[in-house]
Amino acid sequence: MAEADEINPCAEGMPRRAAVLVARLTERSRLPLDYSVASLRIVDFLIDGMRKSGASRERVRGPLLGLGAYVGEVLVRHAGASWVDFDAGQRARFSQPAGVLMPDGRLRNPLGKVVDRFDTGGARHSLQAFHLPLDGRSRREVLAHARTGGVRAEEVGPVGRAR
């Protein structure tokens, strides 16, 4: 990617940035980065590895940006979000140039969430947990959805089979 793109990334380039990251990581290590919500656990693991290695944030800026783009793409693909460039006020608030707009009008900052995970670590900044309530469902609904094998409660008939 061009040097200017590294310095000033924009919403339009985020899907490509995520795809490049996935290609590089899956080529070398066969990580199952398939844009699923479950794959966000791998992102948590990768960031934790960077933290444990003692790398400075500046040294891992590019990979963190790629991982943030990946997290945003998971939201785009699974929660109906879209990438947007932040305006000046939003950039000041989020400390990032772009984020995702959820279908209900909420802005989310996956790039910043990745940086938070790197800076502080821990379950509080889990990227998989970040996704759970973002598609408009509560954590309870998401967990119930997972328990039914991915079948929504309204799709289950009286005998417990999917309609």
Layout of strands and helices, then pairs:
Elements: H1 3-7, H2 14-29, H3 40-52, H4 61-79, E1 82-85, H5 88-94, E2 98-101, E3 107-108, H6 110-120, H7 127-131, H8 139-147
Helix pairs in contact: 2-4, 3-6, 4-6
Structure description:
52% of the residues lie in helices and 6% in strands. It has 163 residues and is mainly alpha-helical. It has a three-stranded antiparallel β-sheet with strand order 1-2-3, with helices on one face. β2 and β3 form a beta hairpin. α2 packs across α4 (61-79) and α3 (40-52) packs across α6 (110-120).
Alpha carbon gap, first and last residue = 47 Å
Number of helices: 8
The biggest beta sheet reads: 3 strands, antiparallel
State the share of residues found in helices, binned by percent: 40-55%
Total strands: 3
Side-by-side strand order of the widest sheet? 1-2-3
Please state roughly what percent of the residues sit in beta strands, choosing from under 5%, 5-15%, 15-25%, 25-35%, 35-45% or over 45%: 5-15%
String of helices and strands? HHHHEHEEHHH
Q: Can you give me a brief rundown of this structure?
A:
This protein has 163 residues and is mostly helical. The protein has helices at 3-7, 14-29, 40-52, 61-79, 88-94, 110-120, 127-131, 139-147; strands at residues 82-85, 98-101, 107-108.
